[in-house]
Amino acid sequence: MVFCSWHFPDAGLDLLREMADVHVWEGPEGAPREVLLEELRHAAAILALPPTDRLDATAMEGAPHLKVISGFGVGFDYVDVPEATRRGIMVCNTPGTLTETTADQAWALLLAAARNVARGDRYVRRGAWKKYEPALLLGADVHGATLGIVGLGAIGRAVARRASGFGMTVLYTGRAPKPEAEAGVGATFRPLDDLLRESDFVSINCALTPETRGLIGPRQLALMKPTAILVNTARGAIVDGAALAQALQRGEIAGAGIDVYEREPVAPDDPLLACETVVLAPHLGSATHPTRALMARVAAENIVSGLQGRRPPFLVNPDVWREPERSSSPL
Ligand code: DGY
């Protein structure tokens, strides 16, 4: 049996139904923890919803038949990968399906925050706009500015490529310089602190790992220019949300565009909700019709391959993979 913790696009579910008994959680919100644990008792594979589902040691402990955890997305911080590997469970994701779409969303938030698109929308709707005012909601120029990218992976590079149309200087940071990627997108390496000091816009595009959790905290925010804008389309926990809200409230940075949160859905008392200069989106990075359909298909293909004894196209923990033994007998 394959458990799907969401009613994923048919492009994926149909593929799974061709080869297995498929249980789909149809509730309006993600599958509750108790449902997930119950379904896992019988499942050979799960098509999971990152970052909401939690595939930790407890979940795996109660899943004696589980062979494949396939995430609907690229991030795999919702899985205890070492534990899965120890248990011989394949962990799969969908890299390449959402790169360009997520880069578009980073730019949508960057532009919206820079040019007060959401604030302007609220202003017009509440009837506050009485006359053309030369000093109304003045924003920041994007063209010619400096963009700092934290994490020059596939999405970071796609964000960088878009910057050339705006005539921007592009900086990036990461564990180490990446000369090839750098040359491809015209970006220059800087240590994180220098990137934060020099950039007008900072886009977070790294994975959430133990090293990047809380990477942008009070000290790092204080290094940014008071005119700078922070954009996060990666994972909420990379940025200290309380520190960000405080920096925005105090005007220590000019604005932010946020797609991802430490807790999702965002808590009603999250201090970011009270900040006028932040543009908020409900984790829409990959939210277009074609991209979501492609993600579902690739996530399903990972499961089909894994259960049919073929190496899944996108295996996060290759150590778990053993070629099926071939008979050595010539007969
Ligand atoms: C991803 O691909 O990781 C998206 O954020 C969806 O979780």
Describe this structure as you would to a colleague:
This protein has 331 residues and is an alpha/beta fold. Helix content is 33%, strand content 14%. The model has no long low-confidence stretch (mean pLDDT 96). Strands 8-7-6-9-10-11-12 form a seven-stranded parallel beta sheet, sandwiched between helices. Strands 2-1-3-4-5 form a five-stranded parallel beta sheet, with helices on both faces. The longest helix is centred in the C-terminal third of the chain and has 19 residues, at 289-307. The protein has two domains: 2-97 and 289-320, NAD(P)-binding Rossmann-like Domain (Rossmann fold, 3-Layer(aba) Sandwich); 99-280, Rossmann fold. It contains twelve helices and twelve strands. The protein binds (2R)-2,3-dihydroxypropanoic acid. The site of (2R)-2,3-dihydroxypropanoic acid has 8 residues, from loops.
Question: Mind sketching the topology for me?
Answer:
Layout: E1 2-4, H1 10-17, E2 22-24, H2 33-40, E3 45-48, H3 57-61, E4 68-71, H4 81-86, E5 90-92, H5 99-114, H6 117-125, E6 146-150, H7 154-163, E7 169-173, H8 179-185, E8 187-189, H9 192-198, E9 201-204, H10 218-223, E10 229-232, H11 241-249, E11 255-258, E12 278-280, H12 289-307
Parallel strand pairs: 1-2, 1-3, 3-4, 4-5, 6-7, 6-9, 7-8, 9-10, 10-11, 11-12
The structure holds (2R)-2,3-dihydroxypropanoic acid.
